[in-house]
Task: inverse folding
């Protein structure tokens, strides 16, 4: 049983095959990591899976339904959310409002009710604020509920994006290098956060360079090299794969 599957995914940019014939199956309730050297096609693959890019070839299915070519908002409505390698924070909003943005698909009041400021609008906004605050506490940002993003450290902003993704109430969340730019203590704390996300019944796809984190939390790992799949297996299998060691992990790892 799979919640997310890709078959023969390929993405060409001119004559460059950024992703070349990649297939992967993600089981529900697991962490499936995607690793590889810089330029291996990891973020491009994530963009194909989440509808940012349309594949040149191949197909994607989510929860048993083919979704190839669906736009990100349509996939979000089906229960898929993601974060980005580079921060995508709205600095003209409060931290709490950033998280509330992720809940927009679940708002039940239209523009007419909002324009008239009907009582249910106030109830909806209060519920949205309460849910956003709970999610901020869940990701470890309880001290920042009343802050502006510009007053938050980088590590906290990375967690803010995770909270916003969770506000969409997804069944699958794809995290693009959540440990990038974090100090060792912050990166170590991600281990606990990812496990607690799993505890909410949410499947995780993780793109990450921090091998300590990847090996600690992953159930399976897909290794890319020059856009092609190099290996797919358990952490123990990947750690001992001679091809992966030569291409990416190195002898010391």
Result:
């Amino acid at each position: 049983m799979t919640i997310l599957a890709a078959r023969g995914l390929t993405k060409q940019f001119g004559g460059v095959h950024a992703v070349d014939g990649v297939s992967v199956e993600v089981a529900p309730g697991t962490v499936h990591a995607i690793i590889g050297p810089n330029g291996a096609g990891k973020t491009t693959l994530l963009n194909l899976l989440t509808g940012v890019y349309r594949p040149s070839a191949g197909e994607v299915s989510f929860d048993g339904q083919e979704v190839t070519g669906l736009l990100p908002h349509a996939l979000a409505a089906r229960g898929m959310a993601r974060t980005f390698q580079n921060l995508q924070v709205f600095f003209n909003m409060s931290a709490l409002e950033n998280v509330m943005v992720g809940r927009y698909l679940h708002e039940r009041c239209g523009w007419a009710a909002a324009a008239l400021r009907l009582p249910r609008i106030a109830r909806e906004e209060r519920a949205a604020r309460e849910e956003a605050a709970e999610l901020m506490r869940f990701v470890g940002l309880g001290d920042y509920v009343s802050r502006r993003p510009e007053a938050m450290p980088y590590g906290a902003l990375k967690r803010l994006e995770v909270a916003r993704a969770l506000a969409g109430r997804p069944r699958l969340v794809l995290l693009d290098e959540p440990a990038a730019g974090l100090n060792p203590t912050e990166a170590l704390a991600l281990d606990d956060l990812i496990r607690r996300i799993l505890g909410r019944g949410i499947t995780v796809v993780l793109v990450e360079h921090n091998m300590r984190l990847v090996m600690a939390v992953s159930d399976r790992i897909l290794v890319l090299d020059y856009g092609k799949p190099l290996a797919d297996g358990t952490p123990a299998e990947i750690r001992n794969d001679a091809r992966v060691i030569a291409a990416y992990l190195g002898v010391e790892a």
The chain has ten helices and ten strands. The longest strand covers residues 16-26. Residues 119-138 form the longest helix (20 residues). The mean pLDDT is 91.
